Amino acid sequence: MKRIVAIEEGGRLTSQLGEGYELFNFPSWEGLKAIEKVDLILLDSSLCPSGLGAVIRGCNQTHPQIPIIVCSEKVSTSLAIEAMREGAYDYYPLSGSHLSLREVVEEALKAEKKGKVARLPKLAPEGEEPLIGESPEMLEIYKLIGQIAPSDISVLIQGESGTGKELVASAIHQNSPRRGKPFLAVNCASIPDTLLESELFGYEKGAFTGAVERRRGKLEQCDGGTIFLDEIADMSPAIQSKVLRVLEGHEFYRLGGNKGIRVNVRVITATNKSLVKCVREGSFRVDLFYRLKLASIYLPPLRERRGDIPLLAHHFLKKFSTQFNRQIRGISPQAMELLKDYPWPGNVRELENNLQTAVILAKGDVLLPEHFPINQEEEKPPSGEEFKDSYTKLFSDLINPLFDELRTTHRGKIYDKLTGSLEKALISLTLKRLRSNQVRAAELLGISRNTLRDRIRKHGLY
Ligand SMILES: Nc1ncnc2c1ncn2[C@@H]1O[C@H](COP(=O)(O)OP(=O)(O)OP(=O)(O)O)[C@@H](O)[C@H]1O
Ligand SMILES: [Mg+2]
Predict the structure, then answer these.
(1) Which of 166, 174, 188 to mutate to test the pocket of ligand 1 (most atoms within 8 A of CB)?
(2) Which residues pair with 436 in a beta bridge?
(3) Residue 299 CA: which ligand 1 atom is closest?
(4) Which range is least confidently modeled, 257-271, 299-313, 385-399?
(5) pLDDT per residue as tens digits for the range 230-289
(6) What separation in Å is there between the alpha carbon of 346 and the centre of ligand 2?
């Protein structure tokens, strides 16, 4: 028979449970010390004058890892947050829940049983490994890193987003003779052209408005070290030719400067686009391409090396348990199956983010499928076939190829993003066609003039 201890007065909680349990109650958590085996603890929050945290810690001291359900009279947002933050298994308001206390208790007791842990794969050796994974593909990559690290040749790293390109670049630097010198990363896609130029090459005082003093660029800052140029496919032709000159050992100039500067840097680049395609389309210089890919590494997507998923998952589990100070023993077999089957369009980064969420959401000491965001997503992309209405089909076909990207870039905001973009495009087009006549536009679209004005304001369509 399950043994339940309630910290309560007058049997307020235990009286709601009914038959079938061995019940104890005490007015304070100190009473727990008298009892050896406990399956579940109920805690009346009104008996915690010095705060929930102290009492929960007290319970954990005498009986570690036992589910604690914090109860209060009415629903309280702050208590609910505090209870879960302090490590309770659940929070239950006596009035205001659609479940009975007995149901909540049963669920908690069952979850404890479910909390079996998937058998651990061989764990990565203790201590910090720069890269996790033991698949044949990754093994080849480790070997390649070892081979090319000691020299100074430039390396081009290719692979989908989130496959670990930056990690590989840093491993190359760390294993090279340059390791004591700086390793600096510059993302060529996230900043506008002129900014990228001053970021890389620096500027002289007065080179442009706002250049109040001379600044050394990243190339100078990492003289003797390694520069990592991320998203290289997005670099403009003008900057491409400057970088090529640096690689060929020529001088460069700070913006607004006339003194040639030479540096000794190793260049590692990365892209998740096909650089060959960019060369073919003319947006990337072919001579720079050959110069950069003297050595090249291709990182396979996670779905092509599924064997690494358990290792990576345990690595991130350990990382986030420590970071959030949670005692999590492992991942349930069902949850591990879920992780192994999922296609991971966002690769290792997406897996890492999922583990982070799961560690935060887990109530017990085992991660279950429902703790992972990917569990909430449907598996197969829908085909537009099932829609008779031709516009729906058209949009479905438009959205389908974008979907994998959207679920990593706009998680939790996809609906607003897409409906907002459609609305903006439609209104903008209508206004252009009707020469900005708002009365006719509202009439044509079938919305009120107020709504139209509101949307024009919202989307900045003046
Ligand atoms: N093999 C691995 N072992 C451990 N962590 C990894 C591994 N691969 C990737 N990661 C982690 O995944 C995240 C993404 O990795 P990284 O930034 O290197 O990817 P990327 O290929 O540069 O992605 P993007 O193209 O989006 O810039 C990082 O937090 C990184 O630590
Ligand atoms: Mg990167």
Answers:
(1) 166
(2) none
(3) 21
(4) 385-399
(5) 999 999 999 999 999 998 888 899 999 999 999 999 999 999 999 999 999 999 999 999
(6) 12
For 33-68, the pLDDT digits (tens) are 999 899 999 999 998 877 888 899 888 888 887 899
Q: For 407-439, give the DSSP string.
A: HHHSTTTHHHHHHHHHHHHHHHHHHHHTTT-HH
For the domain covering 388-458, report its CATH number.
1.10.10.60
Band (16; pLDDT cuts 50, 70, 90): very high
Residues of the chain with CATH 3.40.50.300: 141-299
Atom in ligand 1 nearest the alpha carbon of residue 159: 21
Among protein residues, the one whose CA lies closest to atom 30 of ligand 1:
164
- What tokens were used for 432? 């252009």
Q: Which two tokens stand for residue 433?
A: 């066609």
The CATH number that domain 141-299 falls under is 3.40.50.300
303-376 has CATH 1.10.8.60 classification: yes
Q: How many residues does the chain have?
A: 462
Does ligand 1 lie within 6 Å of residue 165's CB atom?
Answer: yes
166 close to ligand 1 (CB < 6 Angstrom): yes
CATH architecture of 3-113: 3-Layer(aba) Sandwich (3.40)
> What pLDDT score does 78 carry?
74
Question: Span 157-165, mean pLDDT?
Answer: 95
349 lines ligand 1 (CB under 6 A): yes
**Is 310's C-beta closer than 6 angstroms to any atom of ligand 1?**
no
pTM score above 0.90 = no
- CB burial string 298-335: b at 16+ within 10 A, e below: ebbbbeebeebbbbbbbbbbeebbeeeeeebebbbeeb
Q: Which ligand is located closest to the Cα atom of residue 159?
A: 1
Compute the distance between CA of residue 2 and CA of residue 41 in angstroms, rounded to an integer: 11
- Does the beta carbon of 330 lie inside 6 Å of ligand 1? no
Per-residue pLDDT tens digits for 122-143: 333 444 667 888 788 888 888 8
Q: 346: Cβ below 6 Å to ligand 1? A: no
Residue nearest to atom 6 of ligand 1 (CA): 164
Percent of the chain residues past pLDDT 90, beyond the cut? 57
For 124, the token pair is 């990565």
Q: Give which of 370, 329, 333, 369 is closest to 119, Cα–Cα.
A: 333
Q: Which residue shows structure tokens 């009439």?
A: 443
Ligand 1 site, residue 164, Cβ cutoff 6 A: yes
Q: Is 167 in the pocket of ligand 1 (CB under 6 A)?
A: yes
